[in-house]
Design a protein that fits this description.
By secondary structure, the chain is mostly helical. The protein is built from eleven helices and no strands. It has helices at residues 32-50, 52-69, 76-108, 111-117, 122-135, 138-152, 162-183, 187-206, 214-221, 225-234, 242-271. Helix 2 (52-69) runs parallel beside helix 6 and helix 3 packs across helix 5.
Amino acid sequence: MSVVSAQSPPGSVLSPEKPAEGASELAPAARLWPSLAAVYRAQLSRARVARIPLLFVATFQSVGIMIMMRGVVDTRGEAQSVVAGSSVVVVAYVALNLLAQYFGQLRAGGGLDHYATLPVPPAAVVLGAAGAYASFTVPGTLVTAVFGCALFGLPLGNLWILVAVIPLAGAALSGLGAAFGLLAPRPELATLLGQLGMSAALLLGVLPPDRMPEPVRLARDLLPSTYGVEAYARTFGAHPDWAFVGADLGVCAGVGVVSLAVATWAYRRAAVR
């Protein structure tokens, strides 16, 4: 054991106030937006490979629903509801159902531990995955909307409204899907919740509301995707009421903020367990 002499020069002994020469400092905490962009790119790359067959299933499912409803609907208003609802169902299938399965499997398989070791804010993980899954629905939603308009003879002039409907409805449904997957104690239960949510979006969003009993209409009003359906359906008229369209999109945006905040809280809760 060596002993430092009392006559040693002051600079020869490391003082507790001074860090050792060449010692590396801790990296600054990762910022939200760069982390969000990194997670988004990684999730989008992963989804492109693993989810393309399921996207075809979601698109063909919506197209098949419209073909079956072609001989059932009687009025133009009902046709508008069917086309708008079938288009948003593609978003519900991917953003709600598949995202619930993804986070449920991620939690069960220990994947959250990997994200917990990275200097990434929890909000970036949830928002990045939700944004990637919502973006992945764009091709299928456009194909469904164009096919539905051609099938029912509806105008394509206001198809641009999907630029707002897809991200806003997708944010609301993605937040719910992520919360289902992160809060469910088992992945099987997360899958069940996601499928039930998608079934609700299918039945309550595609069927014309005029034919629903009053209790079912009330349940329809509680579903966030309903407001995306209503916003899109209103644009088929000759003179759309854009104030109502904006109000419906505002509801989607508000629900999206709340649901994504709940999903972020659920991620923190699941990551520390």
